[in-house]
Write a structure and sequence with these properties.
The protein is α+β, with helices and mostly antiparallel strands. It is built from 13 helices and six strands.
Length: about 350
Amino acid sequence: MRTRSAVRTPGPADGAALLSWYDRHRRALPWRVVEGRADPYRVWLSEIMLQQTTVAAVIPYFERFTRRWPTVVDLAGAEDGDVMAAWAGLGYYARARNLLACARAVAARGAFPTTREGLRALPGVGDYTSAAIAAIAFGETAVVVDGNVERVVARLLALPVPPKSARREVEASVAAMLTERAGDFAQAMMDLGATICTPRNPVCALCPIAEPCAARTEGEPTRYPVKAEKKPRKVWQGVAFVPVRSDGTILTRRRPERGLLGGMSEAWGSPWGDAPADPFAHAPFGAPWRPAGGVTHVFTHATLTLDVFVAEVGEGAATPTGGTWQAPAAAGLPTLMKKVVERALGALG
């Protein structure tokens, strides 16, 4: 079995080869520039959106955001509810709350900080994001390691442990290759992982740094990265109630700012955890509720199943404290709540 002392570190020549490859094959992405310095606002916005989300999913959101709020000052002046609604469907909603907090902090100080250290002090900007912005927007020689980069380096070194538990080795390997053009180099590593050194079918024949790759030499690159043992997901249950008025509007409320789906619109219902002993104790009011079926949604650490109930009510139906009647399409619902509403409306035919 390979020991940690046997790990290989690619030399600086690999970085030059990677940059040459990137100049020919870089992905065209709406937040990138080919020449000149990238706009730090667009770099920051894209990096926040890309956390735990695919490029394909992010592009339309990024384009809508930058049309509506073309500068960080514009975003800083936006209403919280408008931003949360525009974010709906992108997931990991704490990012949207931090996005606004960060935009307002940057607008208050007049510009983005230009160093990794300064960027790290902003709301919602962690080690990776600060390094990425510093390198791409400001040219700082920062080591940028995301999931794609972890996979590339894990294969280069044939790491016998999960990359996150060998952080120093991974960063040292990246630093050894990084000799110039820090922003382009960071994006080249990301593109290599996204298009060549992919999780299931790496195209080693087209890889610009294949020669020193230990996993390729072993003949089984997909053995790497070694995966950490997963913790079992929690199982949560709950109920959701969707009253539908004759004008087609539904009753929604806002979730607490902190926690899952914080600040987003939701259907009325119970807390998530154990199945409620009396589901109808969590209804917004008395109505001819009928079951509409169940909805299951998978979060990072838990699987939630909601039993959905629907009722047709008149336009004079009560509005509980904190409630709002809205057209479903205008409610800015996150994906889970869209499922709930679709299930309820489907039961009404």
